[in-house]
């Protein structure tokens, strides 16, 4: 696939600058329920560099989506938040938390692209999809209407959509789910954003379309030096796209490091359990899966000590059920487990 | 092994409001499917959205009526069985749906929800009914105290256990599980898959397991049937189909499925394009428009299922596709 000339030019321009970096530090989010404060996110920190893809992975309720919403400035009202979310590049540092709605709109599409799971709710049902894609360019005055329309069709072509000129004239309901998702990705990509936030972008898609879209995100991030924050519940999808991964559990990162290291030799018992629960093509048929017993704690019912200890076969009474567990560096990554040192040294 | 359920030439077309050349267009959801499932066997149905797998599952239970073809259950032709007799037979065939949040009545206590099918089929009353509900709760790994509680008090995984208990309540022979673990988190999904494996071993259940997740399918199924645009394009031993697929579509599916074992390294390019519209299926092989090895003949004539390896595949070109096991060359179609 040849990159679009415009994208290639932007990529070489980017390469001469110091690339953009998203830095999130000590992000804390809590909700009020019955006058009690419930911690949803307990101090999450990470960074994503130019050309790099970081995946946040975990099961429902682990805090991965609320993290992405906070980065996008789309947190529901009524939640309280502290911590820093900053996008830095050669042009300076933007505090994403402190932005006004108008300032944020200026960034959206050009410096920030977003893809959500459900395309139908993110598209205007009454507007032709080609116009919706082109709008990013015309709104920011990047090019003329004609040029924007031409680039929108080129982008659809890039998405692997057959007959893109005709599809650009379609309304969202006239397209299949997979095509709508690709339209939304085209909208997010056409402004050549520095940072792409993709929250379960392929979860509703069939595997063959999913494979097309993952390849596309990979290509664009490589060509354009785009930083990507990728949120998913599916470790196998993450294995396909991420350079680094952060595994989340009960509002915290429990293990983070380079993707191959984490998947090949996971250190946190929760990461180990997640990998083992997934039936793989190599798993012997009808062998029992090593399920993690129990369930994720409900928000507000977080156990004392390590949040995972009630489900952990390695948990030690008197150690794992008291006090907070810090992230510690082990073997090239950060792990939130008090027993990991013993196991690694043993 | 004798078949418990057997369908032949089964088709379902849905009418639409769209017209072309004065004729009303129909969605060809399922076309000319033959499938038999032996007693105690688990057959998985895989394929992408719109491939017709859910429609086929519902046709087999006669939850919807076929446009043509026949369904035999335990030796009896049930294709046009009168409603009253069909209702009686339903005791022996049940379904578990994907979404445990919408498949349970929120106003019914769990005990009532599980007792309901037993009462409808008049299988037990009074203390015998209560004992049966308790036994079902034990069976699916829920505490007996769950009887007095409501669906909203349970997590997704627990609700799916409740839905399974309800499906088991009438002691069915045949269960259709339609994406029954798709909505669950992976650690909970493993618990439910283990439960289904236990139930199958203990109760000799026959199952049609509909799923889009090849890892899950390979784990649970004896045989796998792959659907594309309303037709079965390949069927065979589950492990073999996943390891060594014969049909080019199955090959593309296996390659595209994300897996921890085969990461992006060495991954061939994904399948281009989208399936053709089921409103206007092509005359030849339905996969020809996306197939990397299709020839002119594939676009003109429709391949039928022919023996390959341990199963069947509908492809003219199976002889020329590489088959890794030299002892078992693919038969030519």
Features:
heterodimer; A: 346 residues; alpha/beta; eight-stranded mixed β-sheet; four-stranded antiparallel β-sheet; 13 helices; globular; disordered N terminus; B: 333 residues; Rossmann fold; 2 domains; 10 helices; 12 strands
Structure characterization notes:
The complex is a heterodimer of chains A (346) and B (333). With 346 residues, chain A is an alpha/beta fold. Among the domains of chain A are: 122-192, no CATH class; 269-345, no CATH class. Helix content of chain A is 35%, strand content 23%. Chain A has helices spanning 5-16, 64-72, 101-107, 119-122, 129-139, 145-158, 164-167, 177-190, 207-224, 235-241, 259-264, 269-277, 340-345, and strands spanning 21-33, 36-48, 53-57, 80-89, 92-95, 112-115, 195-199, 227-232, 244-249, 252-258, 328-330, 333-335. In chain A, the strands form 2 sheets. Chain A has an 8-stranded mixed beta sheet, sandwiched between helices. In chain A, strand 11 (328-330) and strand 12 (333-335) form a beta hairpin. Chain B has 333 residues and is α/β, with parallel strands linked by helices. Chain B has 2 domains: 3-221, Rossmann fold; 246-333, no CATH class. Helix content of chain B is 29%, strand content 24%. Chain B has 10 helices and 12 strands. Chain B has helices spanning 53-60, 83-89, 110-120, 126-139, 156-168, 186-203, 214-220, 238-243, 248-256, 296-300, and strands at residues 3-20, 23-38, 42-46, 68-73, 76-77, 93-96, 174-178, 206-210, 223-228, 231-237, 306-308, 311-313. In chain B, strand 11 and strand 12 (311-313) form a beta hairpin. Chain B starts with a strand and ends in a 20-residue tail after the last strand. The model of chain B is unreliable at 320-333 (pLDDT under 50). Classes of the chains: A alpha/beta (346), B alpha/beta (333). Chains A and B meet through helix 8, helix 9, helix 10 and helix 12 of A and helix 5, helix 6, helix 7, helix 8 and helix 9 of B.
